């Protein structure tokens, strides 16, 4: 078999044809989007069209979309102690769920002593009762809860969390990077005050992200200063080609969403059924709502690092979880937060599907797992 099977779409996706075309066309533009001459205005038009596309996709106004260099930067920008809560007071503390991406767990610009973690259940879902306890009687807080976990795929109760947070006078940031293009997401429907996105998770290029803020949000302090770009929220000349491609990817992803989600859900069912029939594999977060494309599994005695290498040698690209650890296979902090012992946290493998995944790809992955299960897990 000469072709490889790519099942690591939660780490990054192939570049969509529409995004590639937009990027190549934008590379031909001469002007700086901040210049007032015709060439500059043309570059600005491409940026603003992409801004409007993303805003419409998530229920925001274009003026509230801030383009960044990545989802990580968008998260860091959002986690700002200067934000003013629903009561008008500045938020003084940060609450993050224990299963957040590393860029959120890092806490942005909040001092370490003002950060607390929200527990999650054994199924990998945020514990809203613990959130209420942390919010009770304290100063206004910024709360950060992801829309969908990047490892388990478990959908988080962000709309319910928003009600709890707002009642306590706080703000809710939602890392929506895994959700966009896989499930319907609207910042107004979930009650998000800030939401982060990333182009390369939906078929856009790497190196482009966005932070979307709710209308009237006050106190967002820029990280990068020195220019008036992005309505004074992020200095630096915009990545016109990357932003144009981001907009094209958003448009293509949302147009294909209903059909893609249905097809990926069906393929995921076949994949999970096949995995569980071999070597006693177990699907994690199986009994809660998940992204239609995500599978995290483990088996007794499985070592993730060995399994990932074994799949790779069989021509199948998978991962052990987040792809943000300099290529290192590390124990999953998500599974540790869910209460699993270190042996399980070190032995979980993630397979994630995308718009071009075919039934034959699933068959190839299952054949690889059959070989690995027989060789790696011998008593």
From TrEMBL:
Which organism was this protein described from?
Bradyrhizobium guangdongense
Q: What gene is this protein translated from?
A: nifS
Name the PANTHER family for this protein: CYSTEINE DESULFURASE, CYSTEINE DESULFURYLASE FAMILY MEMBER
The job of this chain, per UniProt, is described as: Catalyzes the removal of elemental sulfur atoms from cysteine to produce alanine. Seems to participate in the biosynthesis of the nitrogenase metalloclusters by providing the inorganic sulfur required for the Fe-S core formation.
What is the protein's name according to its record?
A: Cysteine desulfurase
A Pfam family hit: Aminotran_5
Q: Tell me which InterPro entries the record gives.
A: Aminotrans_V_dom (IPR000192), Cysteine_dSase (IPR016454), PyrdxlP-dep_Trfase (IPR015424), PyrdxlP-dep_Trfase_major (IPR015421), PyrdxlP-dep_Trfase_small (IPR015422)
Q: Which domain of life is it from?
A: Bacteria
Similarity-based family: Belongs to the class-V pyridoxal-phosphate-dependent aminotransferase family. NifS/IscS subfamily.
Catalytic activity from the UniProt record: (sulfur carrier)-H + L-cysteine = (sulfur carrier)-SH + L-alanine
